[in-house]
Amino acid sequence: MLWRMTDDIAVRAEDLTKFYGTRRGIEALNLQVNAGEVLGFLGPNGAGKTTTIRLLLDFLRPTRGHATVLGLDPRRDKAALHRQIGYLPGELAFPGRERAADLLRFFARTRGGVSWQAVTELAERLELDLSRPIHTMSKGNKQKVGLVQAFMHAPALLVLDEPTSGLDPLMQQEFLTMVRQARDAGQTVFMSSHVLAEVQQVADRVAIVRDGRLVALERVESLGRRAVRHLEIHFEEPVDPAEFASLPGVSDVTVSGPVLRCTVDGRLSPLVRAAARHEVVDLLSTEPDLEETFLSYYYESEGAGHDAADA
Known about the structure:
The chain is of the alpha/beta class. It is built from eleven helices and 13 strands.
């Protein structure tokens, strides 16, 4: 398949803004998604994720600002652009009473003739019975139909809005494997989600939106380095909690005899230096959790009124 790209940017948004009357959907969004990367677009429900997607696909018109997708104008080049995109909406609606196979054959024809083998291989991976009428399917199986139609034509860009909704844990992992393989094949993935653990597994970068504004844009490993960790330190002798409670980034300090437990937000070095003044027997640390890091961004930016530039 030939993918039209004018540069190495798959998605470019400049001052992208949408208001619904006086209510803000998204405001002053400046964002670039690199070709061939997986971008996790994170935020709580109502933060502006779906509005952004609909603007990028020209399902909504912006109040101001502009976007280009795969080097094309979403409004002027809508038909040509949509042929190169695999889109999974956040709320699937399949009207009619046809079988999954019939609907997917229709999608295959409208996309210029997709190999039926590609469809059946995806269905097998997702354990989807194509012979069943869609209206009789569970939410999870309808989601599988949506995933097959998004991936089936190996599009240049996958735009996935809450893609694992309704999937069981096994199918969630299979989906993440599909995303990794798409990236390895050179496809770009724009994945909106509030399920942060799945984004942590596959994304190259994450963009965090809150209340219609971009508050952070970082690589996943960078976010992880400043993530919240829970530590448990075992000392040879009891320690004074006051010695640790005032350290930068350290909170929730509790001491039970020679065991100190605390939360660290950011660098570990101040805590490590303080602990080194005592005889350390053992140190246990949880893996950095993207969800707690996200919540930290969310509440800190809310309290401080940060905008994207501050973040």
